[in-house]
C-alpha cells in the first residue's frame, strides 16, 4: 500500500531529525506563551489570558507543524532533489502518495500540538482535551498538509516555500483566533477570517478545553477545505504536464 | 514493445520534441543520440510519465502510458541524468523506499539490496547518507535502485556520466548482461562509443526531431566504412570511403599527415548532426 510507504518515508525522516523537529515545534509557540501569556499578564473574559492562548497555540502548532513538514519536504523533493520523479515513475498510485503525504503531514502537526500540550501541563490551567480535540487537530493538520501540497506543486523555485510561509502561515497565525477572538474584528473581515481553517480549529479546541460544546460546524468546514485542496492536489499530480 | 506515436512536447513556444514516431521492440538495446538540447531527456521523461506530452502518446505493449497506468509503470525503471533521489536518506533507505514503491516484499528488498550493493562495491557504505557520497557512488546507487525491481524496460539517461573508466566498463558489461536476459533498454548518451558498443539500433536526434534510425553498422556503412583524416592548422578534416582501395588512393594523394582509419559512429554523428549545429 502506497500510503504506508509514504508514512514509512515520513517516519524515517522523523526518526533521523527527531531533535531538530521537536525543537522547531517548541520554539515559536514557547516564545508566544512566554511573551503573551507570562510577560504581558492579562485576563480574557475574567479568566487568565493563558486559558485563552494555550488552545490557540495548540491549533497553531498543528498548522505550522503539518505545513512545514509537507511544504519544505515536497518543494525540496520536486525542485531540488528531483526525488519526486522516483515516485512518479513507480507503480504506486499517485493518489496514495498524496493521501500518505496528507496523513503524514497531519501526524507531524499533531506531534507539534501535543508537544505544546505537554509543555503547558505544569501550568495547571484545568483545560480539557478529549478525542474531539485530537480529531480537530488531525483535521487541521490534514487541511494544512493539502494546502502545502498545492503550494509546493505551484512553487517555481526552492525559495518559494519560505515565501508561502510568510504569505499564508504568518498572517493566519496572528489573525485566526490564536491570540484574540475574531469576534473583535470589523464586520465583513470578521466573517472571512472566522471561516479560515485555523480560526475553526482554534475555536473548536478552545470550546472543548473549557467544557463547552463546539458544535459540528468546525469539523464540517475543515472537511470542506480538505476535500477542495485534496482534489486540487490530485489534479496537479495527475494532470500537470511539467511537474 | 514501446511505441511513440506523434510524440510532441512544447514548453511555451519552444518545441523540445517534435512529432516523433518510434517503435522499440522487446529485448532491443536502443540508443538515442543527439547534441545538448536535442530533446533526448525530454523524450525519456515522457516515456516515464515525469513529463506529459503536449501531443501524441507513449504505449507499452499496446497500453497507453499515463500517470495512472500502474501496470505499465511496474515494467519500467529509470536512471535519470540527475541524481533524482532523497539526499538525506542512507543508501539502504533509498533502496528500501524503491522496493516499497514497487510493492516488493521486505525479504526480497533486503536480499536484492545486498546483492546489488555488493556487485557495485557499495555494501560497506550502505549506512552512509546519499548527500555524503561522491558523484560516481551516487550514480551507482541510482543503478542499483533501478535494477532493484527487475524491470522489463530500463530507461537510461546518461547513465555513465561522472563514472571513471573502470566503472563505466563494468556498467557496459552489466547492461549487456541485462539485455541478454531480454530486458529492453533505451539509452541516451553523450558517449558515442558507448552507443556503438552497446546499442543494436540508434536514432540520431536533433532539434526535437528524429533524423535517422538504423543499426550503428548500417549508419557507418552508409557514410563509408573507411575514413581519411587530414589535420590542418585550424581543424581536422575527414573524408569517408566505401572501400579500402578508394581510401588508400585518396591517402596517397593527400599530404604527409593524413591517416587512414575505420569510421566510427561518432563520425556519423558529427557528419549527420554536428554539421548543422
The helix/strand series of chain A, from N terminus to C terminus, equals HHEEHHHHHHHH
Poorly predicted tracts of residues of chain A:
none
Q: State the helix count of chain B.
A: 10
Return the domain count of chain A: 1
Structural class, judged by helices and strands of chain B? Answer: alpha/beta
Helix content of chain B: 25-40%
Q: Helicity of chain A, in percent?
A: over 70%
Largest two-chain interface? A-B, 29 and 35 residues
Total strand segments of chain B: 13
What fold name stands as the CATH topology of the largest domain in chain B? Answer: Rossmann fold
State the end-to-end distance of chain B. Answer: 32 Å
Mean pLDDT figure of chain A:
91
Largest sheet of chain A: 2 strands, antiparallel
The helix-and-strand class of chain A reads mainly alpha
Indicate the proportion of strand residues of chain A: under 5%
- Separation, N- and C-terminal Cα atoms of chain A: 23 Å
- The sequence of SSEs of chain B as H and E is EEEHEEHEHHHEHEHEEHEEHEH
CATH architecture group name of the largest domain in chain B:
3-Layer(aba) Sandwich
| Strand arrangement in the largest pleated sheet of chain B | 6-7-8-3-9-10
Account of the protein in words:
The complex is a heterodimer of chains A (243) and B (277). With 243 residues, chain A is mostly helical. Chain A has one domain (2-239). Chain A is built from ten helices and two strands, in the order ααββαααααααα. Chain A has helices at residues 2-16, 18-39, 49-80, 84-89, 94-120, 131-154, 160-175, 189-194, 197-209, 217-239, and strands spanning 43-44, 47-48. In chain A, strand 1 (43-44) and strand 2 form a beta hairpin. In chain A, helix 3 (49-80) runs antiparallel to helix 5 and helix 5 packs antiparallel against helix 10. Chain A starts with a helix and ends with a helix. Chain B folds into two domains: 2-215, P-loop containing nucleotide triphosphate hydrolases (Rossmann fold, 3-Layer(aba) Sandwich), CATH 3.40.50.300; 219-276, no CATH class. In chain B, 36% of the residues lie in helices and 27% in strands. Chain B has helices spanning 40-47, 70-73, 91-101, 106-119, 135-147, 165-180, 192-198, 216-223, 244-253, 265-272, and strands at residues 2-11, 14-24, 29-33, 55-60, 63-64, 76-79, 153-157, 184-188, 201-206, 209-214, 226-231, 236-241, 259-262. Chain B has a six-stranded mixed sheet with strand order 6-7-8-3-9-10, with helices on both faces. In chain B, strands 2-1-4-5 form a four-stranded antiparallel sheet, with helices on one face. The two termini of chain B are 32 Å apart. Chain A binds chain B through residues 2, 4-5, 8-9, 12-13, 16, 77, 81-83, 85-94, 237-243, and chain B through 11, 48-54, 67-68, 70-71, 73-74, 76-78, 80, 82-89, 93, 96-98, 100-103, 145.
Amino acid at each position: 500500500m502506497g500510503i504506508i510507504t509514504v508514512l514509512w518515508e515520513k517516519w524515517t525522516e522523523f526518526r533521523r531529525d527527531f531533535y531538530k523537529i521537536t525543537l522547531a515545534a517548541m520554539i515559536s509557540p514557547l516564545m508566544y506563551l512566554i511573551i503573551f501569556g507570562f510577560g504581558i499578564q492579562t485576563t480574557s473574559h475574567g479568566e487568565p489570558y493563558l486559558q485563552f492562548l494555550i488552545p490557540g497555540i495548540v491549533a497553531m502548532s498543528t498548522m505550522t507543524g503539518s505545513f512545514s513538514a509537507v511544504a519544505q519536504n515536497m518543494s525540496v523533493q520536486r525542485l531540488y532533489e528531483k526525488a519526486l520523479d522516483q515516485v512518479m515513475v513507480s507503480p504506486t498510485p499517485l493518489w496514495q502518495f498524496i493521501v500518505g503525504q496528507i496523513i503524514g503531514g497531519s501526524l507531524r502537526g499533531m506531534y507539534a500540538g501535543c508537544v505544546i500540550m505537554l509543555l503547558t501541563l505544569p501550568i495547571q490551567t484545568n483545560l480539557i482535551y478529549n478525542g474531539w480535540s485530537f480529531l480537530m487537530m488531525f483535521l487541521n493538520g490534514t487541511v494544512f498538509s493539502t494546502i502545502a501540497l498545492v503550494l509546493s506543486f505551484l512553487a517555481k523555485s526552492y525559495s518559494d516555500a519560505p515565501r508561502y510561509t510568510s504569505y499564508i502561515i504568518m498572517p493566519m497565525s496572528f489573525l485566526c483566533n490564536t491570540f484574540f477572538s475574531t469576534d473583535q474584528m470589523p464586520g465583513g473581515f470578521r466573517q472571512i477570517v472566522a471561516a479560515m481553517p485555523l480560526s475553526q480549529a482554534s475555536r473548536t479546541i478552545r470550546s472543548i478545553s473549557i467544557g463547552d460544546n463546539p458544535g459540528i460546524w468546525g469539523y464540517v468546514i475543515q472537511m470542506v477545505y480538505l476535500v477542495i485542496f485534496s482534489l486540487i492536489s490530485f489534479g496537479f499530480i495527475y494532470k500537470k504536464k511539467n511537474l | 514493445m514501446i511505441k511513440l506515436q506523434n510524440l510532441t512536447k512544447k514548453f511555451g513556444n519552444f518545441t523540445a520534441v517534435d512529432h516523433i514516431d518510434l517503435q522499440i521492440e522487446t529485448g532491443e538495446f536502443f540508443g538515442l543520440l543527439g547534441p545538448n538540447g536535442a530533446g533526448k531527456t525530454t523524450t525519456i521523461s515522457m516515456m516515464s510519465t515525469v513529463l506529459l506530452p503536449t501531443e501524441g502518446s507513449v504505449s507499452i505493449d499496446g497500453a497507453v502510458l499515463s500517470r495512472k497506468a500502474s501496470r505499465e509503470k511496474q515494467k519500467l525503471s529509470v536512471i535519470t541524468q540527475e541524481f533524482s533521489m532523497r539526499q538525506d536518506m542512507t543508501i539502504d533507505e533509498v533502496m528500501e523506499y524503491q522496493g516499497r514503491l514497487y510493492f516488493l516484499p521486505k525479504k526480497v528488498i533486503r536480499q536484492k539490496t545486498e546483492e546489488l550493493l555488493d556487485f557495485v562495491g557499495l555494501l560497506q557504505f550502505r549506512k552512509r547518507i546519499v548527500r555524503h557520497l561522491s558523484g560516481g557512488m551516487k550514480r551507482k546507487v541510482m543503478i542499483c535502485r533501478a535494477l532493484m525491481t527487475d524491470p522489463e524496460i530500463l530507461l537510461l539517461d546518461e547513465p555513465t556520466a561522472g563514472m571513471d573508466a573502470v566503472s563505466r566498463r563494468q556498467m557496459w558489461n552489466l547492461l549487456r548482461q541485462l539485455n541478454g536476459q531480454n530486458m529492453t533498454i533505451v539509452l541516451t548518451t553523450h558517449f558515442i562509443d558507448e552507443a556503438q558498443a552497446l546499442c543494436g539500433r540508434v536514432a540520431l536526434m536533433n532539434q526535437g526531431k528524429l533524423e535517422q534510425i538504423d543499426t550503428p553498422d548500417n549508419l557507418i556503412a552508409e557514410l563509408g566504412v573507411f575514413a581519411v583524416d587530414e589535420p590542418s592548422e585550424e581543424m581536422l578534416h575527414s573524408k569517408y570511403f566505401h572501400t579500402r582501395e578508394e581510401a588508400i588512393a585518396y591517402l596517397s594523394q593527400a599530404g604527409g599527415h593524413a591517416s587512414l582509419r575505420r569510421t566510427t559512429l561518432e563520425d556519423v554523428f558529427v557528419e549527420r548532426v554536428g554539421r548543422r549545429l
